[in-house]
Design brief:
Layout (H helix, E strand, L loop, with lengths): L13 H34 L1 H37 L3 H28 L1 H7 L7 H11 L3 H16 L3 H25 L3 H21 L19 H36 L7 H37 L3 H35 L6 H14 L7 H12 L3 H27 L1 H33 L3
Helix pairs in contact: 1-2, 1-6, 1-7, 1-8, 1-10, 2-3, 2-5, 2-6, 2-9, 2-10, 3-6, 4-5, 5-8, 6-7, 6-8, 7-8, 9-10, 9-14, 10-11, 10-12, 10-13, 11-12, 11-13, 13-14, 13-15, 14-15
């Protein structure tokens, strides 16, 4: 009798698996965010505060693209992990084909919708009259690279489920490196300003997207088949159900960015800083924040194939061990970034704009106040991924939405009405603490249920 080869997800030590899956994903995401940071740095030195504010206003559209990509990619990866754990090969193959069709449709709709409503979107995203035209110009070009960026983000999760996260890391690094090289050429040498930054960005995204698409025939644990390139109703529902928490998390991020942009513009107008300095400082802070956030998303995403496979295979003790290891790592990372934001905000802000005392003053204050509760930031990310991988999208959704949609946005609106800019910024640490408490309570109750069932 021939013994079936066992998957590494049920045999290798948890710590080694987390490193294998989390580090490439983290680096992939961090490199992806370098697109925006490189643009901001070069634009800041070329055009000053107004240029930085304009590109910040366009940032929510990239978050919307990420939301759609992760809905499809994370949902597909989670469903594939379940199918492989249950030894359902045909269902795994069908999921891949269906996800590819969803990805094509979502990318085309985003470009078409963005171009049709370009200027209303710029106003919605918080642009002041002084920067509205620059923001529209930048975003209008950026839209054409988003379908390729979405391919990268979605296929990152799917290729990770296939056990090869290193491939996407190389893809992202090539695209980001190309963008960084082209930025000064288009912005300074060709004197294209923020328009040049947008062109450099989409060239990098297109190259990365094509490299990621080249992996489609190379999957090892599931296959791309022509007959599966269709929208199968049951498979679409499974993908969207499991990916819905990821969609909502990114949608909440976009909503937070839009709300905070408008609050910075509204309440900054009545201060010595004006509207553009708070807009640019908040935008710079969110770009740096995205680098930190990428580490938690990478860690949480790295647990997903481990938890999904082992939960499907009923290896519940390995699922619990994976969560505990990831939770401890997330708290250590949170503490490290808290120190960076607390004492390094001035240095980070100076990377983008120099020679502006008011800008520097507000940037330091912004980093310190907004990130005051960041030392507990990581646990909700890992907890949401745990519930997603164990087939509990409602709980995953509640944890995913808690910080931004349930707590941060309402608190920012309420506190800003009373305390202005400081009230809006102080909402973030309060939301961090509340989200941490919610995640801790839910996972404690879940583990108690598992013990009663005799799973662990």
């Amino acid at each position: 009798m021939v013994e079936t080869k066992r998957n590494i997800l049920e045999t290798e030590p948890i710590g080694r698996l987390l490193l294998k899956f989390s580090i490439p994903t983290t680096l992939t995401l961090m490199v992806n965010f370098l697109y925006n940071i490189a643009d901001q740095i070069f634009i800041g030195h070329a055009t000053g505060i107004d240029g930085v504010a304009a590109t910040n206003v366009a940032f929510p559209i990239t978050i919307v693209a990420a939301a759609l990509a992760l809905l499809i990619g994370d949902g597909c990866a989670a469903n594939i992990s379940f199918c492989l754990g249950r030894r359902e090969q045909e269902a795994a193959d069908r999921t891949l084909g269906c996800a590819c069709m969803l990805l094509v449709g979502a990318g085309l709709l985003l470009v078409a919708g963005g171009l049709c409503f370009l200027r209303p979107l710029v106003r919605l995203f918080g642009a002041s009259p002084a920067i509205a035209e620059d923001a529209a110009l930048y975003m209008g070009i950026l839209l054409f690279g988003l379908p390729f960026s979405m391919c990268n983000m979605a296929l990152t999760a799917i290729i990770r489920a296939d056990g090869n996260p290193q491939y996407m890391m190389r893809s992202m690094m090539i695209g980001a490196g190309l963008n960084i090289v082209l930025d000064p050429i288009f912005i300074f040498t060709l004197d294209m300003g923020i328009q040049g930054a947008a062109v450099a960005t989409i060239i990098g995204q297109i190259v990365s997207g094509l490299i990621s698409l080249a992996y489609l025939p190379r999957f090892e644990n599931f296959r791309m088949k022509k007959e599966n390139l269709c929208l199968h109703g049951g498979t679409v529902r499974s993908i969207c159900s499991l990916g819905f928490p990821s969609l909502c998390t990114q949608a909440a991020t976009a909503a937070t960015q839009i709300v905070m942009n408008n609050l910075m513009r509204r309440y900054g107008t009545g201060t010595v800083y004006g509207s553009e300095i708070p807009l640019s400082c908040y935008g710079i802070m969110t770009k740096i924040y995205q680098i930190a956030h990428a580490m938690f998303v990478g860690l949480a995403s790295g647990t997903q194939p481990i938890n999904g496979y082992n939960f499907g295979a009923k290896h519940y003790a390995r699922v619990r061990q994976t969560y505990r290891t990831a939770a401890f790592a997330s708290l250590l990372i949170s503490l490290g970034w808290f120190c960076v934001f607390r004492w390094g905000g001035g240095l980070l802000a100076a990377l983008f704009v120099t020679g502006e005392p008011l800008y520097q003053e507000f940037a330091v204050h912004c980093f310190r106040l907004y990130m005051l509760g960041f030392f507990v930031y990581g646990l909700p990310q890992v907890t949401a991924s745990f519930f997603q991988a164990t087939g509990q999208p409602a709980k995953s959704l509640a944890v995913s939405l808690s910080r931004q949609a349930l707590f941060l946005i309402p608190l920012a609106v309420l506190l800003s009405g009373r305390f202005g800019l400081d009230g809006a910024l102080a909402a973030a640490p309060a939301a961090d603490m509340l989200a941490f408490l919610l995640a801790g309570c839910l996972v404690f109750r879940e583990m108690r249920v598992w013990r009663h069932k005799g799973w662990v």
